[in-house]
Every structure is written in C-alpha cells, then in structure tokens.
Amino acid sequence: MHHFAYRDGALHAEDVPVARIAQAVGTPFYCYSTATLERHYTVFAAGLSGLDARIYYALKANGNLAVVRTLARLGAGADIVSEGELRRARTAGVAADAIVFSGVGKTEAEMAAALDAGIFQFNVESEPELRALDKVARGRGRAAPIAIRVNPEVAAGTHAKITTGTKQNKFGIPWPQARAVYALARDLEGVAAVGIAAHIGSQILDLAPFEETFVKLRDYVLALRADGHDIRRLDVGGGLGVPYGAEAPSAPAEYTGLARRILGNLGCHLMFEPGRLIAGNAGILVARVLYIKESEERRFVIVDAAMNDLIRPALYDAWHGIVPVAEPAARAPLAPADVVGPVCESGDTFTLERPLPPLRTNDLLAFTTAGAYGAVMASTYNSRRLVPEVAVKGDAFAVVRPRPTYEAMLASERLPDWLAAAGATAARGRPDEGSR
Ligand SMILES: *Cc1c(COP(=O)(O)O)cnc(C)c1O
C-alpha cells in the first residue's frame, strides 16, 4: 500500500504531480510520501497494541531527517549503527532513551558518544566488543544496558548479501558461546545484560524463518533466566520484506501476530527494528530519459540516474518497478528494453529486457519501491552529485536534501602543499585555506 498512483494520466505522489516536482527540482531525484511512511508505521504499531513493545526504526534504510522526524513524531525509536546515525536520530527528534545501537564494529569513540547521550541499549555482537564497552562505560562511572545479539542459525531464504543469521555471517554470537558471554557480562561492572537480540536478514517474505527465530529466542530467554540473568528486553530485529514486483510478503499484522503469540507473555519489552518495511515503497527515484539507443539486438534506454544513485540492482540484483510518469495508453505495445545509467560500468544497468511501452528522450521514468536502501547508499562515483531528496505531504512538497553544487562537491577536497604552489590554477586547497 502506497500513495503513488496515476491520476488523469499523470503519476502523482499523494496529491502532487511527479512531473511538477521534476520541473522544480530537476532529475534525478528521490521522492518520499509522508502518508505512506505514516501508514506503514501505524499499521505495524497497531499490530503491537496492548503489548509492552516499541518500533525502533532502522535508520540505515533511510535516514533523511524529514523521514526520521515523520516517524519520531508518531512515537518511533531508532535502531542505529554509527555515531552519524546517533546524531541523525537525535537531530530528527528521537529521544535518546528510544535508541538502540547495533553493529559489529562500534568504535570506543562511538560507544562513548552513545553512553553520553544516554541511549536505551547497546546490542553487543562479540566478546571483545563487550570488553571494550565495559571499559568505556566504567571510565564514565556507568553501566551500559546491553543485549547480546545471538546468531540463531536460521536460514532466512533471502539474497546472500542480506542474510545475517547463519554461521557463515559476521553477525551475532552463536547461542552456546552467547550463553558464556552472558556469564562473563555478569562479572563486568560496566555493562548490565538486560536483554537479548537477533536479526536474521532482510527482505524476508515468509514467516517461517521468523517463527523459528522467535521460538529459539523464547527458549534463550528462559535459559538465561534459569542461569540467573534478569532478561527483560527482547529485540527481534527487522527484516520483513516488501513487494518490489510480484512477491507477496507476509503482512505486518501476521508478523506482529506471530510475535505476540510466541513472545507476548514472556514479560519482556519487545523491540522491533523494521527499516525496509517502513520506508521501501514510500519512495520512488525519478529519472529522465536521455537517449534511446537501438540496435538490432537491444533497445537501450539511457536515463540520467545511475548506479551511484540507486545501487540495489548492481549490488543485489534487485528488481525495481519502472513506470513512465506520463501514463502510457492502455493499448501501448510493450517491447523489451535495457534501462541503463551513464556511469562507466556495465553494472550500471537497472534492468535487462524489461517489457516497457514506447519511450522517447525527455520522458520521465519512476523507479518504484526505492525509499529504502536508495538515497542512503548513494555516492558521487563518476563525480556525479548526490541525488536530491523531496518529501511530499498532501498537496505540498519540499526539498529535504538539495542537490549539492559542483562547487560544494569540489570544495570538500584539498590539494597538498606540493601541488598547491604558484602555477596550480586550482583555487581550492591553498595552504592558507587548509584549516577551514
Ligand atoms: C538492517 C537492520 C535492520 C533493518 O532491516 P530491514 O530489512 O530494513 O527491516 C534491523 N536491525 C538490524 C540489526 C539491522 O542490521
């Protein structure tokens, strides 16, 4: 369910014609629907009603301040993986005590920043990390509230690059070892083991791996309590998938129902970390057709968006819907097209042999379900500027991250002294500018 649809032959984001945004902002750009974000959040939250539970939105899916603030206003907490995301969540208005810090490689500086902010929980992924956190927290006279992230050894049946809950993955600690780490934690003054966490992967369509995980987590909670640990929080991670094309993922209500049935009476605060589910189909990437290049074998549609703007097809073989912004005639003939970007990589291909209607230079295309793991993964590869982001609410739209200027892009770099001497025409990086 989302709020991008044709009206009178023109694709709209809520009540705004997408072509009007393109005219104002230029292409390519990301466009987010506030109503869609709010709907996904409220549907998920409704499934948790009556439970001691909270949604900690996974910022890494889409950390734009406008997106995070939209969710924070509805009561969302945040799942973060870096100090940058900590600052982002706080700036967007997420309360510190609604933030959980995940990730296998937290630095001591990041731990210190999160402790000073007073976050809700650290999800610890290894024994050395536990010892580091203990040291940092003790240095501040604190005890960090922690959950150990266990690796439940469940195959999530998703793409290898987004599977996280099997023995071959870097994430979490296998259960027998985790149990020993809890015993160690009890002897460390700088940590207080209050919970247990897991996250088995992303874009999971079926409930079976979740059910297997929830059942294991339930057993782990009981075993840890039997060992004398006061486990009061259970973090099940995120991972529920969204329909990019023909997939039919389990509904959020079925997922929360499953959690309620298996975990609801454990006496734990239940923590959910959906990312993609909230943001995925709340965003589109809009691009313009630059050229149509036809050969005997192929029709190439060369657009002004590229893999640096949306890397999912290149990175995960991901499939995105591609729809013309001007609605094609009902009987428009479909013919296969390869939609590609301008970047100098064969991997800069959004799709191969996709049946698409006739297209011409300057036509606008929308890549659908691009709200999660889209703009956040963008880079400036090929010295292309970061793609701007636009938020829509009803009949209003606003640029929530402008397209940087070329000057700003180049100004972030410096020439070393030995290249900056007279004769070098580059104005940037003169020695006297070095400290600015
Ligand atoms: C990535 C991640 C999430 C969010 O995953 P989605 O598939 O976007 O829901 C949640 N928790 C952790 C620990 C993650 O690494």
**Bound ligand species:** pyridoxal-5'-phosphate
Low-confidence stretches: 431-436
pLDDT averaged residue by residue? 94
Quaternary state reads single chain
Instruction: Classify the secondary structure makeup into a structural class.
Output: alpha/beta
CATH H-tier superfamily of the largest domain? Alanine racemase
Question: What report would you give on this structure?
Answer:
This protein has 436 residues and is an alpha/beta fold. The chain has two domains: 4-13 and 22-27 and 281-410, Beta Barrel (Lyase, Ornithine Decarboxylase, Chain A, domain 1), CATH 2.40.37; 32-280, Alanine racemase (TIM Barrel, Alpha-Beta Barrel). 29% of the residues lie in helices and 24% in strands. The protein has 13 helices and 21 strands. The protein has helices at residues 18-25, 34-46, 65-73, 83-92, 108-117, 127-139, 175-186, 208-226, 252-263, 276-279, 312-316, 406-411, 417-420, and strands at residues 4-7, 10-13, 16-17, 29-33, 53-58, 77-80, 99-101, 121-124, 144-151, 173-174, 191-197, 233-235, 269-272, 283-294, 299-303, 322-324, 335-340, 349-356, 364-367, 389-393, 396-401. Strands 4, 14, 15, 16, 17, 18, 19, 20 and 21 form a nine-stranded mixed beta sheet that branches. Strands 5-6-7-8-9-11-12-13 form an eight-stranded parallel beta barrel, surrounded by six helices. A hairpin with a 4-residue loop joins strand 14 and strand 15. Helix 3 (65-73) packs across helix 4 and helix 8 packs parallel to helix 9 (252-263). The protein is globular. It starts with a strand and ends in a 16-residue tail after the last helix. The structure holds pyridoxal-5'-phosphate (PLP). Pyridoxal-5'-phosphate (PLP) binds next to helix 10.
